[in-house]
Amino acid sequence: MKSRIFLLLGIGIIILIVIVYISINEELNNNVSHRKATKMKQEVSNNKDKYITVGAIDCDYKTIKEALASKNEKRKIIYIMDKIHTEPGIEISKDITICGFGKENTIIQAADKLKLSEDRVFLINKKANVKLKGLTIRHGKITEIPRGGGGIKNLGKLSIEACEISLNKATYGVGINNKGYLNINRSVIAKNIGIKRPIKDALHGVDCGGSGGGLNVERGSEVVIRNSLIIDNKSVANGGGIHVNCEGKAKLINCTVARNKGGKQGGGISVRGDLELIHCTITENDSRVKLGCGVFVMGKIDMFATLIVNNKYSNFALGEGAGYYGKGILDKSEYNFIGDINNSNLKGVTYFISEDIKLYPLQDNGGSTKTYALDFNSSAVDVIPEDESFVTVDQRGVIRDKGPSDIGAYEVEKTISKRIKNFIRDINPLY
Fold this sequence. Notes:
Blueprint: H1 2-45, E1 52-54, H2 64-69, E2 77-80, E3 84-86, E4 90-92, E5 96-99, E6 107-109, E7 122-124, E8 129-133, E9 136-138, E10 152-154, E11 157-161, E12 164-166, E13 169-170, E14 176-178, E15 181-185, E16 188-190, E17 193-194, H3 199-203, E18 215-217, E19 222-226, E20 229-231, E21 242-244, E22 249-253, E23 256-258, E24 261-262, E25 269-271, E26 274-278, E27 281-283, E28 286-287, E29 295-297, E30 300-304, E31 307-309, E32 316-318, E33 329-334, E34 336-339, E35 349-352, H4 354-357, E36 359-363, E37 371-374, H5 416-427
Parallel strand pairs: 1-2, 2-5, 3-6, 4-7, 5-8, 6-9, 7-10, 8-11, 9-12, 10-14, 11-15, 12-16, 13-17, 14-18, 15-19, 16-20, 18-21, 19-22, 20-23, 21-25, 22-26, 23-27, 24-28, 25-29, 26-30, 27-31, 29-32, 30-33, 31-34, 34-35
Antiparallel strand pairs: 36-37
């Protein structure tokens, strides 16, 4: 009897320790992020022969435009020293890297408030090779034709690392409108809102109609996104989160697409070109037309180990072949879960009711973006046979199991401590 009491007491102490850890973890992470940013700023200040500094006080230049315009400048890396740097209409026509000190610590905005904005933040021109790292890019707005790319319009080659593109407005490609090559890693595209073009333009077919709330992949362009979160974006037309145009290509690996809303089809993603989804989680998206609220395909899609569940009305839909774009095609497909779907004849897809998947709410589970954790007993756990998955980590950077691995962007850590955390989630709604 005593041994049982001591065992229960020990378990209780462990649970208490984990609860305390969870409660203070976010604050600790914020403090670590701030200290790291301070240390990095000091390092940059001590190495001005290597780095260009832009900011209001004691910097090489006051604005990014001034730094880019300097003909004698040989340094290729710009650091933004201001916490909040306001500068609209930054046009880049040469190879350059622009860095901040983390998306929480360095903000580049087109205006103090979105309603006051009159231009986008960045325009990347053809032949330019640009890297953006550790920044939040916000408050861009485009109202003049062409009305694409509120945050960023890319015509060249652009890499985005550990950034957030949020709170921008445009008619299409609201967060990012891509017409070149775009690589995104460990980043967030969030809360970008599409605005309708004037009725006069709509009647005369002037400008595009409003697809791609978070990201628009233009004809002939290519996008690769890894370990990223596309969330809470809204489009006027198709693709609340992402729209892939005819002859455009997009590949998503270890990504979460959630809570986006499309004005027409494809709340999460709409596809008229080519899309590849690998270890992605598509959930809680919505579309006004109620068709393919998670993913709507009128082009071609390949899927591997992807979870599409809990989207409003309809998780996944293929176009029926009407109109110019033809019938949607699911080509390569292995180890995919789609919840609550009536059409059960798609290859490489298993159909489950949503309750079997057991996704926890979006939260900070470690890594550079928030994720939806799988319960230890989820039907999506340990599905992919050993050596079948070629993706070695999940969205957070956690190493995937060498044995059977999980479907979606999140890999359950199959340890005793992880089981305790899952138990606490069940008994503590605030977890």
